[in-house]
Amino acid sequence: MGRPDSARAGAAPTTAPPPATDGSSDRTWEPRRRGRARDGQARITYYDQPAIHKPHWKWLIITYFFLGGIAGGSYVIASIAELFGSGEQRPIVRAGRLISLAALLPCPALLILDLGRPERFLNMLRVVKLRSPMSIGTWGLTIFGEFCTLSALAEAARSGLLGEGSALTRLGMLVPSRVTGAIGTIPGFFVGGYTGVLLAATAVPLWTRNHLLMGPLFLTSGLASAAAAISLVLALARGTSRESLASLERLGAITHLAELGLILATRANAGARLARPLERGRLRPLFRFGVIGLGILAPLAIETRSLVQGKAPSRPEAMLSSLCALVGGYLLRYVMVMAGYASADDPRATFELTQPPR
Fold first, then answer.
1. Which of 56, 196, 267, 272 could make an S-S bridge to 214, C-beta 3.0–4.6 Å?
2. CB 148 within 8 A of CB 165
3. What one-character DSSP code corresponds to residue 24?
4. What percent of the chain has pLDDT over 70?
5. Model pLDDT, residue 6
6. Averaged pLDDT, 196-203
7. Which of 190, 189, 214 is nearest to 136 (CA)?
8. What's this model's pTM, rounded to 2 decimal places?
9. Nearest to 55 by CA among 342, 352, 357
């Protein structure tokens, strides 16, 4: 006799497991071939099929995460340098404002391309949903864009980049740069860190387990990448004081130490099962040697050497440190997104996250 249609289609067996004798209501899915998994644990999955759908995000969103972090971080660094720095920090303010705008401009295009239809982005601006990370993120990006544009316009006008006496120059001179920068720091911090919160708001096990760490991790990484971008531009420019490079090196050392601590905390908090994608397969060398080695330890070694010697780094050192940090910042977002995908494909990781401790 042939099997029933439900069995041929791969449906769950109709025979239910015996009720639990301890009074609990936990249920276990059993495959047709009863037995134990290779690791000696009871099988709790249905043919090892994923229990949740993973997001579809690819390189468009990963690049958006990277550029958004640089945009927010550069704006914050420039505002702090303008409010509390001396005249020697003026190159940091100028570079930070312009880099922030340059990094922000591709972000809406990347979002629209990922959505597939431009009107979807506009539809998110029709209402404000406080419980929707996508809605809050869209509005935060829009508000930050206003401040970023005004600050970049004011800086370009004061630097003579718009031409003497032009209409844009006169308009830019009317912008209160310090006040605008101080207020714009708030959405700048938001844009730098909300991408991590956006990941944590999903059901992906690796991201959800670290919901308190993803935002600070992405914010710290954004500040580190922004400091590296500003340092790279200033190292390539002529006439930049070494004091400006030294200030950025000190900031880079602080942010890299914080980033390393948050990465290690994320790995430890995930546990063995949820962190398995970071420790096995193709992501392992990218995580260890790309994110931690190249992106954090290499620039941190250069920055620490300059601090110990008590002198500003040379331009080649600043450029090398900046390039390593930028590559590592992009790899961090790639690794975290791809590791999240892998944890979503692992049904045991989902059950480990959702089942209450016994």
1. 196
2. no
3. -
4. 81
5. 41
6. 86
7. 190
8. 0.82
9. 342
